[in-house]
Amino acid sequence: MSKPVVLITGALTGIGRATASAFAHEGFRVVVSGRHEDKGQALAAELRALEAEAEFVRADVRFEAEVRNLVDRAVARFGRIDAAINNAGTEGESGPIVEQSAANYESTFAVNVLGTLLSLKHELRIMLPQRSGSIINLSSIAGQVGLAGAAVYAASKHAVEGLTKSAALEAAAAGVRVNAVAPGPVETPMLDRFVGRNEDAKARFLAAIPAQRASTPEEVAATIVFLASGKARYLTGQSIAIDGGLTAQ
After folding, report:
1. Each residue of 192-210: b (16+ CB within 10 Å) or e?
2. Contact 12/32 with Cβ under 8 angstroms?
3. Cα 113 off chain centre by
4. What confidence score (pLDDT) does residue 203 get?
5. What is the mean pLDDT of the chain?
6. Among 121, 136, 134, 131, which residue's Cα sits nearest to residue 61?
7. Longest dimension (CA), the chain
8. How far, in Å, CA of 75 to CA of 195, rounded?
9. Do the beta carbons of residue 87 and residue 19 sit within 8 Å?
């Protein structure tokens, strides 16, 4: 039996990069995508050093032609897509609602919501005829609760949750599963930007987490790999919080 194939958007840093490495270690053939050719080719080379078959395809998920090309090239290279991780995202500009702009809304939703929609559209175009596949969208605990000071980001992740549930309902009868993971704070540059690169503010933020720390990208990646595996074959339409107990309070 040939090795399964995973496609990962936003794979060049943070959770996406950790997820690419995790799938490579699990024996998947990996297609990674992002907006920077040099960094993408370097990542593909690193994955090949782990003895994984790996390809980089440059794509900006805001543009349908690029998403279509990404999916088509993955299929042309490996013949199918067994798992797709829609990780590309942005936190946009933080601040109270009274300071938010239409431009911030448009740019944040273009990546987080339109990008997820277009990715789902073209991944399902392949997976539905296959009658198999697993898609994992990157949400956030901000998509399950509110987040003061980041209303536009939170709204975009609520939209990702809605897309996930709707796609899961449409695809379930064909044997295709669609889930989301909703991380809390993760040790990535995004977290540092969110707290204004202020270590005291970061410490106060993490003090509200029952686990008293942020997660690592590798911990989020491990959950993603599980959701993509046959061990979760009856799990669809769900959003799994990876938040150190924050939403249990």
Report:
1. eebbeeeeeebeeebeebe
2. yes
3. 12
4. 92
5. 96
6. 121
7. 56
8. 40
9. yes
Q: Tell me the H-state helices in 35-186.
A: 37-49, 64-78, 102-109, 115-130, 151-171
Cβ partners under 8 Å of residue 224, min gap 6: 19, 22, 85, 136, 181
Q: Which residues lie across from 30 on neighbouring strands?
A: 6, 54
CB 94 within 8 A of CB 104: no
**What's the order of all strands across the beta sheet hosting 176-183?**
54-58, 29-34, 5-9, 83-86, 133-138, 176-183, 239-242
For residue 74, give both structure tokens: 């993955």
Pair of tokens at residue 236:
């669809």
Burial tier of 249 (Cβ tally within 10 Å: 0-12, 13-18, 19+): exposed
* Domains parsed from the chain with CATH numbers: 5-185+216-241 (3.40.50.720)
Which residues have a catalytic role annotated? 153
Confidence of residue 1 (pLDDT cuts 50, 70, 90): low
Q: Could you report the per-residue pLDDT of 33-68, keeping only the tens digit for each? A: 999 999 999 999 999 999 999 999 999 999 999 999
pTM over 0.70: yes
